[in-house]
Amino acid sequence: MDQYNSIFNSIYQVLKEHKLIIIDENEEKNRNAAYLVCVPILEKAIKYDETDTSKWIFELVSKLNIHIDEKKNLNEIFSAITLEIQALKDQLMDQQKKMEIQAGQIQTYESKLNQVELRLCQLELNEKLNDTKIKAFEIVRLFRFYHVDNILTHMYPKWNNWSKFTDEWSNRELEVMNLLDLDRKTTVPMDDQRIQTHPAIQNFIGPVEAELKQQVGFDVTLLDLRKIAIDRHECMHQNIRSVAEQRYLFSLCTNYIFPENYKFTTVLQNMINKLIELDEDVTTTKLKSFHK
């Protein structure tokens, strides 16, 4: 509507300058009435991008009950009106360009803001994941202490703790790599299924996993325990040793929500529940100080 008003005002002013508008006490009233009559013409001209300017200007002038008889005056008036309208068009185009530039700037700012929000979300996720890895490491250490080490002591007296057991496991991985002629520079034994599923490995860790499952009642792969231990950030790690510290860790983990992208959630939740069972009766707790 502002656009129509600007065009009407320009035409009205030109007609006024050529003394074709009667100036009296009714001018404002007549002007407003004329504007309402002229709006449909302006709407049509703008909507269909009317190129025959003289045609719709003449129609608009007629609606104002103005009759221009002299050709000279007609050309002069139409020329003046056309110049005014062109100036308005140029002004509108400049405004449109500025609005497009501003829209582009806003889009750029929004894009940058979205990037910042994504980075913040990623930082929050990373912080959550790091916190999870620390708790996971402590859970695994305690789980090994209460459940795995006892099995190792009875099954493999020579490798009767986790450190000795994983050292021997690593030695066997190297032997399998040599047997399969795998490149040590490009092969990560812990992540290579050809190595981990090889009989030389499975015959060593399989009996421990079978006995562990029988004792705790759920599947636990020793490879997961190794990976969780490596996964944590040592610089952020704090050792959990006393019974009180263990109980505090369990309380933190009971309702802990693991990140969606953490792949060991299920096995950790099972281990947490199993460890908590050791302390079900405080008077006969099976928890003990942990110094490994």
Briefly summarize what is shown.
With 292 residues, the protein is mostly helical. The protein has ten helices and no strands.
Q: Biggest β-sheet, characterized?
A: none
How many beta strands in the DSSP annotation? 0
Mean pLDDT: 78
Distance between the termini: 81 Å
Count of discrete structural domains: 2
Secondary-structure element series: HHHHHHHHHH
Report the structural category: mainly alpha
Report on this model:
Helix content is 71%, strand content 0%. With 292 residues, the chain is mostly helical. The protein folds into 2 domains: 2-99, no CATH class; 120-284, no CATH class. The radius of gyration is 42 Å and the shape is rod-shaped. The protein has helices at 2-17, 27-47, 53-63, 71-155, 162-179, 193-196, 199-216, 222-231, 243-254, 265-277. The relative contact order is 0.08. The mean pLDDT is 78. Helix 1 crosses helix 2 (27-47) and helix 4 crosses helix 7 (199-216). Residues 71-105 form a coiled coil. Keywords: Coiled coil.
